[in-house]
Design brief:
The protein is mostly helical. It has helices at residues 2-27, 33-41, 51-60, 67-79, 85-101, 104-107, 109-120, 126-140, 161-182, 191-220, 227-231, 237-262, 274-280, 301-305.
Amino acid sequence: RLGQEAARGGERTVMAGRLAAGLRNLQTAAMDEISTAVFKATTDDLFEPKEKHVVAVARWSCEPELQEQVASALAKRVSTCGARPVTTAKTLFLLHRVATTGEPEAVLGPSVAELRSLVERRSLPAAELAYAPYIVGLCEWDDCNLFRRPDAPACWRGMPLPAVLEGLRPLQALAEQALELALDASEVTTPAVAALRLAVAEDAFAMFLCETAGAAVLQDGLLAAPLALVNLRPGGLLEALRASNRHAEDALMLQEALGSWRGGSGPLADLPHLDSVLKEGLPWSGSRARVALATTASASAAAVRT
């Protein structure tokens, strides 16, 4: 009897999936290809954003003849955020992917303006509202689609100290937000929010790698730097080095947290590709930039912070 019940449950799940797919097809019947991909990447179901649709939208954002359509479809989807938490989380994830791998300057302006308005009115679900200001800041950052590149940490070489400081300011501000979000101890309630948190954790590590390379340039030039630049407040050389040290502590705690989550005790334990992240490095990094993650942590970073 138990076997029969399990079989019936499986059949009901399959049927529900088919019905949901049929409904999505009806909803997108009159949409163009780009709007359909945006819609299907952000559907209100209990799954992660579908990768093929996310990749397609990011790729289309790089094609000049399609950028106006992409911008319109994304802004329209952002305008619906707030009504459904899952759709909101997936939309933030999609904006993040376009910002980090596409052509954000060409397509994200209207979406960011709409998202900022939603944030100011606090018209988003609580969990997603925590991520939205970071996504706004990331999308508006000039280097948002460059910092994940394996060669990004080398960009500081040969730059004068004032230019390094100027470049570090927005990077350090975003890194602080990314580390705080990634180390958040609150429960992750859906796979969509889990995927968003992992994307932000990836950002935190990538930004930290870039930040430490910039801080190393500042450290090398510290003794020869003008005192006015060293002691400038806000935004001086010493302030930048102190911030880098703070972020190093947080990055180590995040590394420890990911190690403990691997064992199934943390909020991202059920995320399908987390294990490959821990074993192989970050998904975007390939073999050239790996992050060694502790696997013997006795407690998560969230527990350390609280």
